[in-house]
Amino acid sequence: MAADKLRGVFAPVVTPFNNDLSINLPAFVAHCQRLVADGAGVAISGTNSEACSETFEERMALVDAVIDAGIPGERVLVGTGCCAIGDAVALTRHAIDRGCAGVLVLPPFFFKNVQEDGVFAYYRELIQRVDDPALRVVLYHIPAMSGVPITLSLIERLVAAFPTQIAGVKDSSGDWDNVMAMLERFPALSIFPASEILMLRSLALGAAGCISATNNINARDIALAYGSVTEAARLNDSITSVRKAAERFPMVAAVKHTLSLLAGDAGWRHVRPPLVPLAADAALQLSQAMATAMPALRGVALPA
After folding, report:
1. Of 6, 2, 40, nearest in space to 221 by CA
2. Domain-embedded: residue 302
3. How far apart are alpha carbons 132 and 119 in whole angstroms?
4. What pLDDT digit, counting tens, does each position of 15-36 carry?
5. Catalytic site residues?
6. For 124-149, what is each residue's pLDDT tens digit?
7. Domain limits for position 178
């Protein structure tokens, strides 16, 4: 494995919004700083960041704010996948210019049932147009959302064509067999499950860590488990409980609701349409589940 292989736990950082749904940049930066202090890296402009509900200017401003705040670029991944190749190129160049470790790139996601040749051509065009030796691409496999899978044969073709630029895969399929297949066929790549539960199962098999939404609320324990077999065994049950509590609800709203409890700030519950906050009954159920699962919330008076 290369010495500079991407690895570790990364939080696909949720984006705090003000009451008028503008981005609360100070709160975003403070959240990223807490995550890094807890041992996580940050993945900006991912699914859980609501990136597809943000403008290009906003997405670039989030990267700038984090780097300008002194968070090291090697701890930062940036989501740059867009339907239009030119848009993806612009966001990718910006991330490279700011010294970020890599870019997390969705396939073009509007047209469905496209041929693998077309998806390959998209990534080829992106890599060739960016034309920068610093480019490190983490392919983003999230078929339930994108409708365009990153197949094993596509990965094989891309690695053969661009062995330096293709750095890894984030597998958000939730399919253990697919994670296993990626680890077996691509040992030189950084394979990131999108769940810390799957990370704990796959670290011994070569997983690079995880890029998990619940790192936003449980980064310290997940980072400890990533770094130590002993800590992984000690923390397995609690980490699993937190993850399973969040998974019962729409993930973005669940993570933001939990952050509102941890921070004592209801502003964290804001999401941009078409997403909606948790309904009152779901919010109460999640509050109760997290109060049981997370020591930081035990004994705290929890609003619904």
Report:
1. 40
2. no
3. 21
4. 999 999 999 999 999 999 999 9
5. 140, 170
6. 999 999 999 999 999 999 999 999 99
7. 8-234
d(CA 148, CA 276): 25
As for how many domains the chain has, the answer is: 1
Question: Any known ligand binding at 211?
Answer: yes
Write out the two tokens for 160.
């053969």
Full DSSP string of the chain? --TT---EEEEEPPPPB-TTS-B-HHHHHHHHHHHHHTT-EEEESSTTTTGGGS-HHHHHHHHHHHHHTT--GGGEEEE---SSHHHHHHHHHHHHHTT-SEEEEPPP-SS-S--HHHHHHHHHHHHHHH--TT--EEEEE-HHHHS----HHHHHHHHHH-TTTEEEEEE-S--HHHHHHHHHH-TTSEEEESSHHHHHHHGGGT--EEE-TTHHHHHHHHHHHHH-HHHHHHHHHHHHHHHHHHHTS-HHHHHHHHHHHHHT-GGGG---TT--PPPHHHHHHHHHHHHHH-GGGTT-----
**What mean pLDDT value characterizes the chain?**
95
Residue 304 banded pLDDT, cuts 50, 70, 90: very low
Residue 141's CATH number: 3.20.20.70
